[in-house]
Amino acid sequence: MIKKVFYNLNDFYKLVKMNKDSPSCSHCAKIEMDYHHEESFFENYFWYFIGSSGFLILFAILIEFFLDFIILSQIFALLSISLSSFEVFEETLEDIKNKRITANLLMIIAAIASFFIFHGQEGATAILLYAIAEHLEEITTEKSRNAIGELLELVPDEAFLKKGNEYAKVPSEQIKEGDIIGIKPAMKVPLDGLIISGQSYFDEAAITGESVPVFKKEGDEVFAGSFNSESFVELEVIRESTNTIVAQIAKSIEIAQQNKSKKEKFIQKFSRYYTPSIIIAALLVIIIPSLFFGLNFRDWFYRGLILLVVSCPCALTLSTPLANVVALTKLAKEGILVKGNKFIELVNDIQTFAFDKTGTLTEGKLKVFDIIAYENKKDEVLRLTSSLERLSEHPIGHAIVNYAQNSNIEFYEVKDFEILKGKGIRGKIDEQIFQVGSERFFTEKDFNLPVNNLDEMKEEGLLPILLGTEQKILGIITIRDVMRVTAPILINGLKKRGYSTSLISGDTQKACDTIGGCLDVDNIEGNLLPNQKIERIHQIQNTSKKVAMVGDGINDAPALASSDLGIAIGASATDLTLETADIVIMNDDLTKLLTFVDITKKTNSIIKQNIWTSIIVKLSFAILTVLGLMTLFLAVGIGDMGVSLFVLFNGMRILRYKSEFQEISLETLENNVKTIICQNCKTKNTLPQHHGRDMIKRDDKLVCWRKLIDHDQLKPCEEEMPLYCPKCQAELKIH
Fold this sequence. Notes:
Elements: H1 9-17, H2 26-29, H3 41-44, H4 46-67, H5 70-84, H6 86-97, H7 103-114, H8 120-152, E1 158-163, E2 166-171, E3 180-183, E4 193-197, E5 200-203, H9 205-208, E6 214-216, E7 221-222, E8 227-228, E9 233-237, H10 245-258, H11 262-292, H12 297-310, H13 314-319, H14 321-333, E10 336-338, H15 341-346, E11 352-355, H16 357-361, E12 367-373, H17 378-389, H18 395-406, E13 415-420, E14 424-429, E15 432-437, H19 439-444, H20 451-459, E16 463-468, E17 473-480, H21 487-496, E18 500-504, H22 509-519, E19 523-525, H23 530-543, E20 547-551, H24 557-562, E21 565-569, H25 575-580, E22 583-585, H26 591-626, H27 632-652, E23 675-678, E24 684-686, E25 689-690, E26 693-694, E27 696-698, E28 701-703, E29 720-722, E30 732-734
Parallel strand pairs: 11-18, 11-20, 18-19, 20-21, 21-22
Antiparallel strand pairs: 1-2, 1-3, 3-9, 4-7, 4-9, 5-6, 5-8, 10-22, 12-17, 13-14, 14-15, 15-16, 16-17, 23-24, 23-30, 25-26, 27-28, 28-29
Helix pairs in contact: 1-8, 4-5, 4-8, 5-8, 7-8, 7-12, 8-14, 8-27, 10-14, 11-12, 12-26, 12-27, 14-26, 14-27, 17-18, 26-27
């Protein structure tokens, strides 16, 4: 999908600093210059030049005020300009050469013309303040530019390539897919890969925004840019340097900058005509009153100069793109990848969030919940089923086999194994045929099914897997998925922010009702095929402003593409996800979606503040100028420099955003045990669930997992069960 990611940093910085297609803003025009040039003598000693220039202006004012030496005063003002205007004049010449009319030209015209009416001190002051404003803008936007540039510096340039039993240090770009590399402790990972030897904790904060190091073992994927905290591991490279996740993030930010919002497009178009119009308006202010109405030419010439300065479009042109760049950078550092500025603006129009269930609101990790035996013991049902499933590649089979292995079950030898695609499996054990499959599979074979049991299981949101011979049902193993602990925080948070929620899933209606009921989702629909999900998205769009679809980015790709805003969650951040979704959240923390909403809403609010502040100040100062109530000093100091700096610093406030969502440790909520056993009467029961997850043992009782979470956004649950046998009142043990 992405052919080249580590593109020229110069072009990247030009792009992210601002929009280079806006020719009316001098600051934006500078983006087309080379940011990697050596600093000039003037830049190295900027504040010395500015200080000297300011001293000369003060001297010029004092000479005229106390000694009335006007000509000498103008000479000192001219010397002041020569010290402060080097960059402004240089950029103006570059603009003229490239046939651009920018704010630089407005300032130079106003400064030069001020000497014709002996207001050179004010012209020099205007250039001085303008140069300071440009310099401060550069310093301010440098923070944004550096923050994005850090993405490209996450990945080491060299890797330890395994050759035989030795490791050779080679440039990362020479490593190919399938090569083996070694990662030492306290070393950053240079390329995406799968662990083939060793295990360690990896800090993935720079990629996923996850602040807690993640334990990785053989078979797990490790991202380039992760920090190896503990032990030596070997990786098999799965993506070359130009296609790592970090590289894709950087490339996507570049693409995002080209994917402009409506406000940016409007301001771009507006700016192309604005500056020439201001020059014409200033000429009319100078000419019409004096030529047609006989008013004082000197006064109206001065007002025309002020109008040129006060109407400088820098602040308006900076108002939107800077805030968007800062937001994209902040979101990327939070582990949220946004593919365009327009998607930041779009959040204001979203009214409904629609969700897939499996892998989105739930963990997508299937687990055995219960075993029911009709003739044999439960262990025998598990042994027969897992022996057959061990030869299958189906995710349900993997869940059953893993459960059997954890229960120390020995597998039977299976002969004549056969996969009945889309239905089930069968094989011969000890010369007898056994079959494993869904309810539909055995219904088609006219088996006498335990309908009441099956209905009860489906009512609880469980998936029944049946075991039978060729004549009868021997038992049922129920499979379930567990809800993500951050799912209730997400749904509650969206409701508090005024959004409606909808669950649209291909899972059974019962399973969807179970999860949706726990989360208090507004609308719940299951049994949907991919094309039916698209239909539901269109139905929501017809009754809502706009809809965002949240899914795993692979099997939900059609719905993601059909929605107004497609959001992919978690480990599915692959090429398909990046192509389909508009937003990619790089880890499985659903609270990141609330972080995205909060940052984008804050960004949109700041953009609105910037635009209206720029318009109101410029318009007010223009009116005061025509009325003769404005000076050149105030026009530059407040109307131009002041507003521009307000826009810059206001936009940078986004970087100060801190998520209100606390980290949740899953270690205390994980449960590998499944059975409660009475040591006295040997009664066995499955570990109960509450709020979509296993209850947790605390002291002599079971409590709801939500009781153990101290989180501002999640109301704790006080549900609990004593660990005493209902038959004999003996103490129950969890196995």
